[in-house]
Amino acid sequence: MSNEAIAQQFLELADLTEFVGDSPFKARAYRQAAQLLESLQTPIESLAERGREALAALPGVGDAIADKILAYLQTGAIPKREQLLQTVPAGVLEVMAVPGIGAKTARLLYEQLGVHDLASLRDALMSGAVDRLPHFSPRKRERLLRLVELKHKSQRRTPLGLALPRGRELLQAIQSLDGVQQAMLCGSARRMQEDVGDLDYLVASDTPQAATQAFVNLPAVAEVYAQGATRAQVFLKSGLQVDLKVAPSERWGAGMLYLTGSRAHSIRLRQRALERGLKLNEYGVWRGAECLAADTEEAVYAALGLPWIPPPLREDTGELEAAEQGRLPRLVERQDIRGDLQSHSHWSDGLDTLETMAQAADALGYEYLAITDHAHQFADREAFEQRRRAIEQLNQRRGGRPYLLNAIEVNILPDGSLHAPDWMLRAAQFVLAGVHEAHGQPAPQMTARLIRALEHPAVDALAHPTGRRYGKRPPNDADWARIFECARALGKAIEINGYPTRMDPPTPLARVLVESGAWVCLGTDAHAARDLGAMELAVGLAQRGWATPERILNTRPLDALMHWLAQRRENP
Ligand code: DGT
Ligand code: CA
Ligand code: CA
Ligand code: ZN
pLDDT tens for residues 462-497? Predict the structure, then answer.
């Protein structure tokens, strides 16, 4: 139980106290307790172990508050708060958390308009019903509506590929703030989850109040939703929600571990600590009041008898067991990748020329780039021949740096046959097959369709296997284990696609793919030179699937890749 969680309970208790019209002095005392708890850098549990007197000796904590803290530590709740919630709907707490809505307003909203949660508040603001309340100016209504809308929109998740660039930009801005020693993007973004709810930053600073204030003043910040002594929650102009937490440098590792999550991973770690007579929280690993480790993540894991666990694995899906037994995978990394195996040029629906694509691939340090223009978009044989010659000339002129593969992406028709003539399938150096129509077939049909495509002798790999498009189309249903096994038996590859709105196959299916032992190829599906940077997303997804470099085709140098392709063609 973190200090912050107890602080939150006290803040809510203060709001509830005011809401029911109890003494304002009590509410003020609860808020002071919350602030103290938030800025305290030792876990309140450790203090509590020294007895009630140690708690009551804290500034602003009298006997009444000390008892409430003890009750919370024992039962997970403050009885007084629970008692008040018998008569006040819990949703009123989120209404009072909206900046600008105090207990008085919340009470009026509740009594006059039946506002009992954020949704009913939004309705009352949108319908203009609030105009009937005293002291409710149109300006106030507009401001609140904006905040509530932002909160509402932020319930939507953002694809990692859109969130990461913004997250990094903001990270830079945070790092250059006065009083900020270091800053780090944590949460689901650090775990490379395919989509993120909000961005979470940890900041090391000895002047938390000043750092938090400087943060909320950043130009990218549109609205401040909450601000405390060591934390802030804001909305960016882009609509993204951001949480910021400040910790002293000596607690950096413990803070990072906590804020990176996932929750499930943290819960397992805390259990493990308890089994060893220790306590883990966002301040460190503790034996009683003694802090054993806190400054780095490595130290915190080590204090629990574990090696450092890479963030993409922190989902409580076997990583603790693997860490314990020394079986953590050596995950594939961006630097292992020597080329991109899916990209499109202006010869099909890409925006850029072969030359521009080659330059961009060169800038990424690639040895090769597969130009997988859509097969059915070539008007005739002559058009395909023209592209082949253009690729050859470019390879000659650039000395094959990077080497462009004369490749295609071919549509898999509803019956599993391929939408390309045989001569083209034979001429292409690398053939990706993918579903682009008739999505959502029943699973048995989709399974048979994909297996038939994989069995075609010309096909090297299956592109974006499930066909999902973020926010548009769910993953296709099929017997994936069977399809991946089929690819393994045939010695063919399945793509992990890093295009921001694809990210396909999503976790946990990426793990099923990796465990099948089939070859994997990473592709960005770039339709412009700037899209090639999405390789980090494909790598992140591969890491979430526990992929090591060995079975990933594009960790091979060019000659090994060409050898793989030639061999496959000789033994179709
Ligand atoms: P998201 O934002 O929905 O994509 O997912 P996360 O994992 O970024 O979750 P978020 O933003 O709610 O919280 C960030 C991290 O902070 C989370 O991974 C673990 C930690 N955390 C936040 N609240 C709690 C909590 O109540 N319990 C625990 N154990 N950890 C928490
Ligand atoms: Ca988050
Ligand atoms: Ca968060
Ligand atoms: Zn495609």
Answer: 999 999 998 889 999 999 999 999 999 999 999 999
- Ligand 4 centroid to residue 372 C-alpha, Å: 9
Share of the chain above pLDDT 90, in %: 88
Please tell me the distance between residue 163's alpha carbon and the centre of ligand 1 in angstroms.
16
**Which residues does ligand 1 sit against, CB inside 6 Å?**
187-188, 193, 196-198, 200, 258-259, 261-263, 266-267
76: left (phi over 0), alpha (psi -120 to 50) or beta: left
Candidate from 1, 164, 188, 241 with most ligand 1 atoms within 8 A of CB, to mutate: 188
For 254-328, CATH number out of 3.40.30.10, 3.40.50.2300, 3.30.210.10, 3.40.50.12780 equals 3.30.210.10
Q: Which residues are bridge partners to 209 per DSSP?
A: none
Mean pLDDT value across the chain? 95
Ligand number nearest CA of 258 is: 1
In angstroms, what is the span from residue 186 Cα to ligand 3's centroid?
9
- Residue 474 is predicted with a pLDDT of 92
* Residue 534, φ and ψ in degrees, nearest 5: -70, 0
pLDDT, residue 1, reads 63
Positive or negative torsion for Cα 370, 374, 380, 381: positive
Residue 155 has pLDDT above 90, yes or no: no
- Point out the ligand 1 atom lying closest to the alpha carbon of residue 5: 26
- Quick one: DSSP state of residue 352? S
CATH number of 158-247: 3.30.460.10
Buried/exposed code over 548-571 (b: 16+ C-beta within 10 A; e: otherwise)? ebebbbbbbebeebbebbeebeee
Q: Does domain 3-156 have CATH number 3.40.710.10?
A: no
What is the best residue among 154, 201, 263, 316 to mutate for testing ligand 1's pocket, by most ligand atoms within 8 Å of CB? 263
Q: pLDDT grade, residue 62 (50/70/90)?
A: confident
Beta sheet of 182-185, edge-to-edge order: 182-185, 199-204, 241-247, 231-236, 221-227
Per-residue pLDDT reduced to its tens digit, 252-309: 999 999 999 999 999 999 999 999 999 999 999 999 889 999 999 999 999 999 999 9
CATH class for domain 334-570?
alpha beta
